[in-house]
Amino acid sequence: MATRTLLRIDSRCGWRWRAALPVSYAGLARGQSTTAAAEPQRPEMKTEVPGPKSLQLLKELSAVQESGAVQFFADYERSFGNYIADVDGNLMLDMYTQIASVPLGYNHPRVIQAFKDPKNQAAFVNRPALGLFPSGDHVQRMRQTLMSVAPPGLSNVQTMACGACSVEHGQKAMFMSYQRRKRGGEGPSKEEMESCLKNQAPGAPNLAILSFKDGFHGRTMGALAVTHTKWIHKLDFPAPDWPVADFPKLRYPLDQFTRENEQEERRCLNMVRDLMATWEKKGCPVAGIVSETVQCEGGDNYASASFFQGLQDIAKENGASLMLDEVQTGCGATGKFWAHEHFNLRSPPDVVPFAKKMLTGGFYHSDEQRPTESFRIFNTWVGDPSKMALLEAVLEVIKKDGLVDNSKVIGDYMLNGLLDIQNSFPAILSGVRGLGTLAAVDCPDAATRDKIITLMKNKGVHAGTCGTATLRLRPTLTIQRKHVDIFLDIFRGVLKDLK
């Protein structure tokens, strides 16, 4: 395959194009031995997906709960590495990986070893109220796991169970720090403590968080308030009157639309400034700004490093905190451990939620975001020590096998292949883009995209969707060139059949 130039982020001045790196497996020499031993060579398909067994199980499940989102029933005992098996005996190359949440692949030997390790047994059978009764090895585990990969400049972390509650509690941290500054560091008044119990000011202040169109941050109520993707996520739920700015809609290929994309990002930043001023005048100041580093569910929408630098500047000018949501982009998939490291921000973000590939939820935060009273950010479990035991094994493999670098190298190779295919099918595909192994391509409409997804699945490749008509790829960190070749071959064949 010919080498091309690929979309990448320039941390100093925004986007630029550069030559793709040559593919090298030096960093994966050890990693191959731990994932390739029992991994299938290719997909193996026996039925259409979903097959008869999946359909029967779906019928049974539907008798007790709404199950319209179920695509097929998996056989996780037979799944291995980058391949997912279903109950009908099909074996598919998984390029979506449980909505981007499988770091090393299925049944990775090192993770199985961690599960069987006697020293981890107590963590799996005794789930503590972690905020009250942490185990004696909890601090050591935190240092070996979450703090060993903390975003540069952030030395505080709060564990949680999932991405949505991580975002929601991060919002609370931003509100609390805003109010502490307003009080000059003094504690709350008696009036504030009493009025908050009635959902009234001054204890329940009129504050806002600014978010972006097409952003997705979760399905709990606070996270939904800053989510603006599909109606099905939000319909019938009350939502606060908070400002929503446009997120840049970049045009591709980037090197042909440099001026237009710069203008678009300036327009969006100016809108942020205007909305901040408008809500201040309304008596509802913006306490925080929240954005994904890449808008994933909303369509794999990117913005440049200069855009995020400008966003941080606006937050600081207005005394607001900046949350960069890394639930889907963290843990090495972009070629850096945290996607915001590509942005060369002048200071760390104030709040960085994580989950998915990190196996546990939580958020990193600055010193200013740390609560000054106990029980302000709290729930029964505040995380799960058993997930920390598994995360310890995952991070060991990531570091040992150079999987962050692997994401960059294989991501370049995959994007080269997608560009080749896009050039062969310009009437069907457009806007190939990505960062590391996060990759996407647009189709003319949702019906075409969904047909491609179905055809690929029946030929043995499981891919995902996002946005209005976007095909989304989210492979594991252990993906290799051979997996990409299988995907590209099947993808090209499906597009030929579609013509």
UniProtKB/TrEMBL annotation:
Enzyme class: transferase
Coiled-coil spans in chain: none
InterPro entries reported in the protein's UniProt record: 4NH2But_aminotransferase_euk (IPR004631), Aminotrans_3 (IPR005814), Aminotrans_3_PPA_site (IPR049704), PyrdxlP-dep_Trfase (IPR015424), PyrdxlP-dep_Trfase_major (IPR015421), PyrdxlP-dep_Trfase_small (IPR015422)
Cofactor or coenzyme needed: pyridoxal 5'-phosphate
Domain of life according to the entry: Eukaryota
Listed GO MF terms: (S)-3-amino-2-methylpropionate transaminase activity; 4-aminobutyrate:2-oxoglutarate transaminase activity; pyridoxal phosphate binding
Gene3D superfamilies (alphabetical): Aspartate Aminotransferase, domain 1 (3.90.1150.10), Type I PLP-dependent aspartate aminotransferase-like (Major domain) (3.40.640.10)
EC code(s) of this entry: 2.6.1.19, 2.6.1.22
Any one GO CC term of the record: mitochondrion
Catalytic activity: 4-aminobutanoate + 2-oxoglutarate = succinate semialdehyde + L-glutamate
Entry annotated with the keyword Transport: no
GO biological process, alphabetically ordered: gamma-aminobutyric acid catabolic process
Swiss-Prot/TrEMBL keywords: Aminotransferase, Pyridoxal phosphate, Transferase
NCBIfam families hit by this protein: GABAtrns_euk (TIGR00699)
Similarity comment: Belongs to the class-III pyridoxal-phosphate-dependent aminotransferase family.
PANTHER family in the record: 4-AMINOBUTYRATE AMINOTRANSFERASE, MITOCHONDRIAL (PTHR43206:SF1), AMINOTRANSFERASE (PTHR43206)
Protein name stated in the entry: (S)-3-amino-2-methylpropionate transaminase
Classification lineage: Eukaryota, Metazoa, Spiralia, Lophotrochozoa, Mollusca
